[in-house]
Amino acid sequence: MTAQSFHPPERTLMGPGPSDVHPRILEALSRPTIGHLDPVFVDMMEEVKGLLQYAFQTENKLTFPVSAPGSAGMEMCFVNLVEPGDKVIVCQNGVFGGRMQENVERCGGTAVMVQDEWGDPVDPAKVEEALKANPDAKALAFVHAETSTGAQSDAAGLCRLARDHGCLSIVDSVTSLGGTPVKIDEWGADAVYSGTQKCLSCIPGISPVTFSERATKAIEARETRVQSWFLDLNLVMGYWGGDGGKKRAYHHTAPINPLYALHEALVILQEEGLEAAWKRHEHMHGALKAGIEAMGLSFFVDEVYRLPQLNSVTIPAGVDEAAVRARLLEQYNLEIGAGLGPMAGKIWRIGLMGHSASATNVLNCLGALDAVLTDMGADIHSGKAVPAAMAELG
Ligand code: PLP
Which end of the chain is more exposed for a tag (fewer CB within 10 A), N or C? Predict the structure, then answer.
């Protein structure tokens, strides 16, 4: 077989991630590759660290991007903080809390699960009960923005509870960073990981992380060696430079061009400003909501806990949801997401993340969904969605 160059179609990405990558970021990716210890590259790495501190709203020195996707950032937090025999309280209200449990157990720890209904936020009262019942717990782990449902939990309150009970907090901010307020220092969060492919609108495959001084001390006080060589913070920092970046040694070959892309994504975020970015996500969510409701469809998550960047929409009765997604992709080059796990067949997940959170995307998505559902004979109010969203956009 003779393979040809691969040219993907131009899609509009409005699923749970990846989101549309800004053209400036794609251009940055194509700049010349230089050495990963080149002084010019090292200077850029320092800027990336500073820009991530801004995105995370933290002064934490130990803030940098892991050279692997969000799941690796998750593992970095767990493998460095959890030793065999440690107890961790893990909150689950969707898919990703379940992965945290796996991580704790694979580190030889015990996960004490606090379960909430999918679509609900983590219940702080249940967490407090678990903390009281387990005074020997080392950490509390939770997902700030549950991508499988679109529910947001009270990260500030949960981190406070962890501190009040002498626990470290491990926070998943993969879907929240850049889309909804993430304030690491104000929350007093200890180990936090994120992803680049959601509200930062960068390419997938990098995971920003940040560790507080409390977390760093806990890692230094470990009795056992971190079981993952690649994710051992002590070794990784030899390359990323915890001391202002002066001394650097080879650990792994950094993804040079993807880091140019991350740098550009963070420059774009800084130019827009975090608060403006959060407001834009809210505004676009408001327009999408007006259109979805005018069409006669409803949201799965209660309005109070709803994430603007991840909209779970209930599928109308009798509709073949996979066929709708397939037609959106084929006819409109538009990707929306299916439900995950128990939510499969019950919801669509419409992402408004980063560069994808635009008026053009909202109107295109509503127009295309209306056209496909109307053509399939679904029981919706045809023709109402786009005008309702336009009225909201002003
Ligand atoms: N945590 C959450 C909340 C996510 O949404 C995702 C990915 O969608 C991950 C972790 C894992 O990130 P990745 O797919 O980049 O490994």
Answer: N
Alpha helices per DSSP H over 82-154: 95-106, 124-133
pLDDT at 247 over 90: no
Structure confidence by residue, pLDDT tens digits, 47-106: 999 999 999 999 999 999 999 999 999 999 999 999 999 999 999 999 999 999 999 999
68 closest CA partner among 53, 59, 79, 81: 79
Please check whether residue 338 is in contact with residue 361, taking contact to mean a CB–CB distance below 8 angstroms: no
> 292 CA distance to ligand 1 centroid (A)?
26
372 three-class SS: helix
Mutation pick for ligand 1 pocket among 175, 198, 307 (CB with most ligand atoms within 8 Å): 175
The DSSP letter of residue 20 is: P
Give me ligand 1 centre to Cα 347, in Å: 19
Rounded to whole angstroms, the Cα distance separating 25 from 30 reads 9
The rounded distance, in Å, linking the Cα atoms of 121 and 341 is 17
pLDDT tens track for 269-278: 999 999 999 9
